[in-house]
Amino acid sequence: MRILFVFIFSSLILVALPALGIYLHTGSVDRYLEFPPVTMYVEHAGESWFVFTILLLALAVVLWPLVKRFLVAVPVSENQVNSGKHFPWWGWLALFSCIASWILAWTRFHWFQPLQPYTFIPLWFSFVILVNAAAMWRNGSSLLTKTPGKFLLLFPASSLFWWYFEYLNRFVQNWYYVGIEDFSSLNYVLTASVSFSTVLPAVLSMNHLLKSWKRFDAAYENFFSFTINRPRLFAGIFLIFSCGGLFSIGIFPDLLFPLLWLAPLIIVTCLNSLLGLPTVFYNLRSGSWTGICRLAFSSLLCGFFWEMWNYYSYAKWIYCIPFVSQLKVFEMPVLGYSGYLPFGLECAVAGSFIMSLRDILESGSSRTVLADFSRA
Predict the structure, then answer these.
(1) At the N or C end, where does the chain have fewer CB atoms within 10 A?
(2) pTM of the complete model beyond 0.85
């Protein structure tokens, strides 16, 4: 049951550390727990081209080898994909619903005005079904049809999953919502919870669809092996620093805001490593980067649609990111899209745990965790 310990312990520290840091610093966490969260109290630093350039160069150094390898990869048997398969009928319904919801989200018909703030829900449920239909067409299987019961569990789990990021955002206030000013507390929590329920299904369904794109296998299946000597020592060090960063995130929001996306992944990975459990990076030791690269790209691709459909919607989110708010693509600063890369891995960790929970409880084994999403 070590994996259950990781889940429970990591959940506790991920929730407690930011609040504890603020409480010890200011003596109160009341404004951080305001609900609905409407008050803006974090004063962000302005744009800085120096910081923007440094971060852009750092990202380029890290990502360019991966991008270059992807561009020059020569996939094998790509022409065999979807041979003899047909696009399912329910996929056409989802496509129609997605287009209709998109039109309603970006227009302002008078007759639709009472429902205008709720277009995210049908749009993204339609998108999730559409992606699963595309996966059926491309490779003959989808999460929806392969394991429907486990797939449905992702929806309530996804609500809790994203509510945590909403909670963590209270300490840095990197985004806020408009068009929901008239929502009651009950309406807010219900609408948000249903909307948030599509996050994990969307990213993980996209990841399943992209398994049919053989370029990922050609590019990253035999990339280079990455191992760490004395992994538990490094895990302990990274765990201490990430916990310290999360503890301080509300005290220094302009400096530590990237930890909103990095700290949960680092903490869970370090705890798994310390307990001898597999991590989302397990296959790097054999040189296979396919799983994590596909997950990161799946999240980035979903992120593109999130940001695009958000842009002209009535109820929407707006970003307040220090130093790098220049050069936006839709509402998102261009460097902000890098946050989707680790987020894809976090989706895999959460999704794998949820879909393997029954096996874990019955057998006590952690071998099935990460068995699908983070592997090639």
Answers:
(1) N
(2) yes
CA neighbor of 91 nearest in space, from 133, 58, 54: 133
Please write the tens of the pLDDT for every residue from 314-371: 999 999 999 999 899 999 999 999 999 999 999 999 999 888 876 666 665 555 455 4
How many residues are recorded in the chain? 376
Q: How many CB atoms lie within 10 A of CB 238?
A: 15
CA–CA distance, 195 with 125 (Å, rounded to integer): 9
Helix axes of 2-26 and 259-274: crossing angle, nearest 10 degrees: 140
Angular region, 225: left φ>0, alpha ψ -120 to 50, beta rest:
beta
Residue 311: pLDDT above 90?
Answer: yes
Q: Which residues pair with 319 in a beta bridge?
A: 175
Residues 7 and 12: their CA atoms lie apart, in Å, by 9
* SS3 track for the chain: CHHHHHHHHHHHHHHHHHHHHHHHHHCCCHHHHCCCCCCCCCCCCCECHHHHHHHHHHHHHHHHHHHHHHHHCCCCCHHHCCCCCCCCHHHHHHHHHHHHHHHHHHCCCHHHHHHHHHCHHHHHHHHHHHHHHHHHHHHCCCHHHHCHHHHHHHHHHHHHHHHHHHHHHCCCCCEEEECCCCCCHHHHHHHHHHHHCCHHHHHHHHHHHHCCCCHHHHHHCCCCCCCCCCHHHHHHHHHHHHHHHHHHCCCCHHHHCCHHHHHHHHHHHHHHHHCCCCCCCHHHHHCCCHHHHHHHHHHHHHHHHHHHHHHCCCCEEEECCCECCCCEECCEEHHHHHHHHHHHHHHHHHHHHHHCHHHHHHHCCCCCCCCCCCCC
The residues near 3 (Cβ < 8 Å, ≥ 6 apart) are 272, 277, 353, 360, 366, 369
What burial class does residue 235 get, using C-beta atoms within 10 Å of its C-beta: 0-12 exposed, 13-18 middle, 19+ buried? buried
Strand partners, 24: none
Non-local CB neighbours of 291 within 8 Å, separated by 6+ positions? 280, 283, 348, 373, 374, 375, 376
